[in-house]
Amino acid sequence: MTDVSRYSKITTHVLQELKLRGEKIAMLTAYDYSMAQLLDESGVEVILVGDSASNVMAGHTTTLPITLDQMIYHAASVMRAVKRALVVVDLPFGTYQGNSIEALNSSIRIMKEAGANAVKLEGGKEILESIDRILSAGIPVMGHLGLTPQSIHKFGTYIVRATDKEEAGKLIDDAHLLEEAGCFSIILEKIPASLAKKVTSELKIPIIGIGAGPHVDGQVLVLHDMLGITQKFSPRFLRRYHNLSEEIKGSVKAYISDVKSVDFPNEREQY
Ligand code: KIV
Q: Which of 1, 68, 118, 147 could form a disulfide with 88 if both were Cys (CB 3.0 to 4.6 A apart)?
């Protein structure tokens, strides 16, 4: 955790400074006001309004169905809570690929309607024109390489990416292209730790990993996974800090029992 008094507001420049200092960056996802407030008060540097909302909030099996309007709703809820963290919002599938003007318009909507601090896009060379156009409007962009869940139908599986020379080479080239274009940071998802280490040492911008080993500048996890709210998803890289699903179910069962037995409400809990 960073020294709160040192940084009253985390900006892209602060992240750059943290990389230079060798201080790791902690990033988590949030999709609503209450959770975002807890994360911000706990001192996390970056909050990602991820399109993983499609999975953990809406119950879809992929991130593809979530819409721009839905992402803006989640992002606006998060922004109402956050005072200190940098808030990055995912551009959802179909709002930036193959059309840089649409990419810019989608990003402007996220910045204007939600009040976000930055946007995140999945992909390298193939979306460079979109990235260039968004950056030309002064909107900070975070890249995302490796396992890019919006391309799940191309990959066919969620297994670790860039294990062969060709894909690893493309990932390194893409990372350099994103840095040269002006991205302030890149997420590397589910790739070999040695490859993430190489990218992190070659690039000046902060590299955030998820399933990319320890030799990166920071880590990100999906909040519902690390709190143990999601139950079935357990990849090797996921560390569960809590078993909240059991705690929530235990509390709900106790409530049901109290209601049935008329133990709730008691004399002090009525008017
Ligand atoms: O949508 C998301 O939560 C993400 C993280 C897995 C990095 O992109």
A: 118
